[in-house]
Amino acid sequence: MPCGFYHCNSQRKNAAMLDSDDTDSVCSSSSTVRSDFVGMMGSPAEELQLDKESVLDRSLDALYEKRGSTREKALEDIIEAFNSSLPHEFIEKKYATLLHQCLNSVKKGSSKEIALASHVIGLLALTAGLGEKAAEILEDSVTPISEALRSRSEAKKLESLLEGLAMIAFVGGNEPEETEKCMQLMWQVVHPKLGPNVVAIKPSPAIITAVVSAWSFLLTTMEGWTLDPKLWQESVSYLSTLLDKDDRSVRIAAGEALALIYEKGNLEKFCGGSKGDNDSSIKDAAHIHSVRTKILNQVRNLSAEAGGKAIAKKDLNNQRNTFKDILEFLEDGYAPETSIKIGGGSLATLTWSQLIQLNYMKRFLGGGFVKHMQENEFLHEVFNFIPKKKSLSKEDRVSGIDKRMYRSPNSILSKARTQFMSKQRMMSRDRNAGHYASELGDE
After folding, report:
1. What is the mean pLDDT of the chain?
2. DSSP assignment letter at 22
């Protein structure tokens, strides 16, 4: 998306309208005030962009406040601003300051503040897109986020930390080693490295789902040959055990992760296969065959699971549909094909990698998904999506909420208009008084 928010045609039109009013008698100071106002005032969309940037500036200042609730509110406002627009000029000037304050929140804030700050960091990287900024965000954030992940506190906080880590690695991970390191950090949340006096804490279904989903999201970016087999052997066996868990979201996340591993074509790396002598190779082949058979039977059963009285029909149908797709892929090699409409354009997925990326991005962005898909050039590259061109008239259209902000007597722009008109009236009175005095002198 272009960084400039000012349309020259709109400015010239407004300037022409103002300059047509009594041009012969306007003094230079009046012209200066008027040109300043024209430079600030543009189309409704431009003015709203300025309003949103001022909100971001105020919210950034509020992150320095001592009261935690003030910082939490500021982070909520920043998330809303990033969801409703892509503030590239703000990021260009102040991304480092915003990142620094968010990392302070991750280190010292409440669980709610940590969750919000993690989401902002993810949005910051996603909006900045590929380049030095995203790489710096990843480099500076990995250690604070990994330390926060080890705190083992509320599920919501850990889920947000995992999402934030997934997003900054997805955008800023320039080397496979960087991405794989983040995948390891995620995996350690459910498989911690235990010291002599450390007791393993059983993760909740919500945390297991968040870990597997974030791990799969990053796996979509990795080529199988770049992965270290020592790190991931036996991971397929673990994912297979998750298919037997009671929680439906855990089953679905594990099933999609397994489908992705099969799609990558490196099952051996994920279930303990190794290169050695002939005897070892034969044992490995037998082991892999048994793993395949077990997973296929699990997937087949889940695709046809019968419901019970306490089972929500929607959840059951979602599971059945997902595992029918996985079963068809494992048996016949056909990944599910999907298509969604975005602003008149169509976004299609043809592989498990694309589907997992799309679903994860939708969950992370929430209400900001459509806006980012229309204007975020990084996402256009990721999904090979070309948004339908907007006409000039549509660019200046604003939502109902934005219109109320624009028309509010308390908005910055309304106050600017009031100040401008007051100055105009004062100068008009002074001008008329000067004309009257001149006429009396002539007489």
Report:
1. 79
2. S
3-class SS shares of the chain: helix, strand, coil, % to 5 = 75, 0, 25
Quickly state the pLDDT bin for 234 (edges 50, 70, 90).
Answer: confident
Residue whose C-alpha is closest to residue 303's, from 295, 213, 212: 295
Residues 367, 83 contacting (CB under 8 angstroms): yes
Q: What is the pLDDT of residue 425?
A: 53
CA-closest candidate to residue 212, choices 175, 238, 233:
238
User: pLDDT (tens digit, 9 = 90+) per residue, 69-120?
Assistant: 999 999 999 999 999 999 999 999 999 999 999 999 999 999 999 999 999 9
**C-alpha–C-alpha distance, residues 378 and 351, integer Å:** 19
Amino acid at site 432: N
| Distance in angstroms (rounded) separating the CA atoms of residues 346 and 386 | 8
How far apart are alpha carbons 167 and 170 in whole angstroms? 5
Which are the contacts of 360, defined by CB distance < 8 A and separation ≥ 6? 166, 213, 214, 217
Write down the domain spans for the chain: 411-438
CA 247, CA 67: separation in Å to the nearest integer?
38
Per residue in 276-315, pLDDT tens?
555 567 777 888 888 899 999 999 999 987 655 445 677 7
| Residues in contact with 118: Cβ distance below 8 Å, sequence separation at least 6, in sequence order | 102, 106, 145, 148, 160, 161, 163, 164, 165
d(CA 84, CA 368): 6
- Please give the pLDDT value at position 174: 87
Map tokens 């204007």 to a residue: 375
Q: State the chain's maximal CA–CA distance in angstroms.
A: 120
**What residues are paired with 342 via a beta bridge?**
345
The DSSP 8-state label assigned to residue 87 in this structure reads -
Q: How many CB atoms lie within 10 A of CB 17?
A: 10
- Alpha-carbon distance values, 276 to 120, 280, 413 (Å): 47, 6, 72
Residue reference for tokens 């100071």: 29
